Amino acid sequence: MGLTLAQKIIKSHLVSGEMTAGSEIGLSIDQTLTQDATGTMAYLEFEAMGVERVKTELSVAYIDHNTLQCGFENADDHRYIQSVADRYGLRFSRAGNGICHQVHLERFGKPGKTLIGSDSHTPTGGGLGMLAFGAGGLDVAVAMGGGAYCITMPKMYKVNLSGRLGENVSAKDVSLEILRILSVKGGVGAVIEWGGDGIKTLSVPERATITNMGTELGATTSIFPSDEITRGFLKMQGREDDFVPLESDADAVYDRIINIDLSKITPLIACPHSPDNVTEVASVSGTPVEQVCIGSCTNSSLADLLKVAAILKGKKISPSVSLSVSAGSKQVLAELSRCGALNDILQSGARLLECACGPCIGMGFSPPSGGVSLRTFNRNFYGRSGTADAQVYLVSPETAAASAVAGCICDPRALGAVKPMPLPEAFSIDDSAIIMPTGKSQILRGPNVKPVPSGKPLPDVLCATVALKVGDNITTDHIMPAGAKILPYRSNIPYLSKFCFSAVDEGFAERAKTLGSSVIVGGINYGQGSSREHAALVPLYLGVRAVIAKSFARIHAANLINAGILPLTFDGEISQSDELEIRGLHALNSGEVTLINKTAGTSFAVKCSFTERQQSILAAGGLLNYTRQLCKK
Fold it and tell me: Which tens digit of pLDDT belongs to each residue from 571-592?
C-alpha cells in the first residue's frame, strides 16, 4: 500500500511513535517562524529553556502584526525580538517587509520540509509542498531548541480537482467551497491533500490561498504536490535549486475523498459571523457596502493584486465605500509599483496600507458602526474587526474590487473578461529587510515584557468552581481578543488578563481571580481559530485549572496541555457557578476520570484522552516545567 504525500514527509521526519491514525508521533522540524503578536512569549519561553543556539535549519522572526506604534509597548517588543533573534541565531524580518506567510512562501519555503509557526495560518506553506503546521509558541520554542513537534497522527483526506476556474472565479472561491462542504469542524484531525488534473491550472499563490484557508476547516494542515508549477514559482524567486518533486503514490489510501469540478464553482461569500456560512455572491448581490479590505496572508500576492488593479483601472470606487489595499510583502509592493498597477489602484480612490496583517487582526481600519465590510481575509468572527456590530463578509479579491466600485455586493462575473498585467519572468529580489544574526546582541527588555506564567503540578483531586459556561464554536478571539487596544500587551500577561473573555462576559476575569481555582465549561469545537497560546496562558494566570467541553480545536487543546490546564470532554450537565470535584487525575491513562458536581448532587465520568507524554506534561504543570525536568536528567 502506497503513501500519501503527507505520510511520505512524516515518515522522513519521524523521531517517535508509529504512523497509525490516532497515535502520537514526534516530528523533527526543519524550519520555524513566529510573528510579533505571539513571538515575544515564544522567545521568553525559549530563553527559559536555557538553550544556547537555535538548532533548526532555519528560524525566522517576523514583525507583521503589532505594527501600530501608539506607545512604547509594540516598539519595545520589536526591539526585544530583534535582540533575541540576533543572540540566538534567527533571521529577523523587519516591520514593513511583509506578512510572515507571504514572505516565507517567497523567500524560505522548501518542498518536503517541515515547518511550524506560532500562527495558525502557517499551513500556507503547503502551497509549496511543505508539511506546515500552526502551533503554540511553546511548541515552536521547543522545536527551535531541537525538540520534536508532537501531534496526533492525522487521518488523510484527498480533494480531487478537475476542470478549470471560470472568468473572475478564484482560489478563494475554492476555499469557500470546501468550507461549505466540510464546515469549520470538518477537517479536524485530518491532513487535506489537494490533487487531480485541476491543480495544474493553479499557481503557487493560488494553492497557498487554499492551504491558508484550510486552517478554517480545523485541519491539521493542507498540502499540494510539488510539481513543475512549484519549480516555476521557485525559479521566479531565484530559488530553483530548492525544488524537489513530490507527490503521493498512485495506490495511496485516503480516509475520505472529495471531488470538486472547478468549472462549476461560482463566486462565493462567507456571511457573518463564520467562515463556513457560505453562499453564492449572486444570492446577496445588491447589499450596500461601507468598507472593503483587500489583503491579508490569504489574498495579498502579486497575482491577486494585479487582478484587483485590472478591475479598478480607469474606475473610481463608490463614494459610499472606504477601500484599503495591503500588499503581502515589500516584494509584491515593489512589483506593483514597477509595472504601474499600483497607480491604477491608487487612482481608484483606494487607501494603501503597509505590508502587514493590519485590519485582519483588528489592527486599524475597523468598519463603521453596524457597517458591512467585505474582506479578502480568512476569518469573520464576531468582533474580530474591532467593531462589535459590524457585518463582515469574506470574499475573493475579484468580488471585493467589483463591489468597491459598485458600492454594493457585486458578482464579479458581471464585469466580463478582465486581463491583468502579466507576472514578471523573475521577481526582483531585495532581502535587505531580513537581518542576519551576529550572535553579539544583548537581550533588550522593555517594562511591558513580563515573565511567562508558570503552571502548577496536577493534583489527584481538583476542587474548583465553574467561573464561566459558554456555547459552541468559541474562538480564541472570544477567549483572548486581538485588536489595536489589546495586542500591544501580548507580552504582559497580568495586564492582558483584564480582557480575557471580555466579549462574552466582562466580569469573568475578576471573578476567576477571586475564585483562585476555577473551571471553564464549553461546547463543541472550543478554541477554534488562532494558534495564540495567550488563550491558554491568560486563563492559567487567572487560576483556571481545567476546561471541560464537548470537543476541542486541535491547536488550542495542545496549548491548554502545554500551559498545564486540563482539557476534558463530557456529555453531561454543568452550570456556571457549580462547585466541582474532579477525582483520579493521577491516573489519566484510564481514559476517564470522575466528576462530582457538588452543587447539583450528581456525578459522571468525563473523558481524558492523553498520551503518556501529555500526561507527564500535565503532571509537571505544563510543557515548560516538563522540559526543564528533562534538561536536569
Answer: 888 999 999 999 999 988 888 9
Burial class from Cβ neighbours inside 10 Å (0-12, 13-18, 19+) for residue 438 reads exposed
R_g of the chain computed on alpha carbons: 23
Phi and psi for 249 in degrees, rounded to 5?
A: -70, 150
H-type alpha helices, 89-167: 100-107, 137-144
| Residues forming a β-bridge with 596 | 581, 603
**Cα dihedral 474→480→485→491 (10° resolution):** -160
Phi, psi of 396 (to 5 degrees): -80, 165
What type of residue sits at position 84?
V
Give the Cα separation of 297 and 427 in Å (integer). Answer: 19
pLDDT(29) > 80: yes
Helix (H, G, I), strand (E, B) or coil at 455: coil
The span from the CA of 60 to the CA of 434, in Å, is: 9
CA separation, residue 428 to residues 98, 109, 232, 354 (Å): 15, 18, 15, 19
Q: Which residue has the cell 479598478?
A: 312
The number of CA neighbours under 13 Å toward the Cβ of 120 is 26
In whole angstroms, what is the distance from residue 209 CA to residue 11 CA? Answer: 26
In whole angstroms, give the CA distance from residue 127 to residue 207: 5
Q: What residue ranges in 474-530 does DSSP mark as E strands?
A: 518-521
What pLDDT does 633 receive?
A: 58
| CA–centroid distance for 11 within its chain | 25
Taken in order 391, 393, 397, 402, is the CA torsion positive or negative?
A: negative
Backbone angles phi, psi at 389, to 5 degrees: -100, 15
- Model-level pTM? 0.93
Whether the CA torsion 376, 379, 382, 385 is positive or negative: it is negative
Distance CA 112, CA 296 (A): 25
- pLDDT for 283 equals 97
The answer to whether 204 and 230 have CB atoms below 8 angstroms apart is: yes
Distance from C-alpha of 122 to C-alpha of 524, rounded to nearest angstrom? 24
Do the strands 149-152 and 24-27 form a parallel or antiparallel pair, or are they unpaired? antiparallel
Give, as one character, the DSSP assignment of residue 586.
Answer: G
Length of the chain: 633
User: In which residue are the cell numbers 527588555 written?
Assistant: 445
Which set of grid coordinates corresponds to residue 102? 507571504
Residues facing residue 544 across a β-bridge = 518
The whole-angstrom separation of Cα 593 and Cα 606 is 6
How, if at all, do strands 391-394 and 372-375 pair?
parallel
Write the pLDDT tens digit of every residue in 59-103. 999 999 988 888 899 999 999 999 999 999 999 999 999 999 999
* pLDDT tens readout for residues 475-528: 999 999 888 888 888 899 999 999 999 989 999 999 999 999 999 999 999 999
In Å, how far are 130, 148, 229, 448, 529 from 114, measured between CA atoms?
6, 11, 20, 33, 21
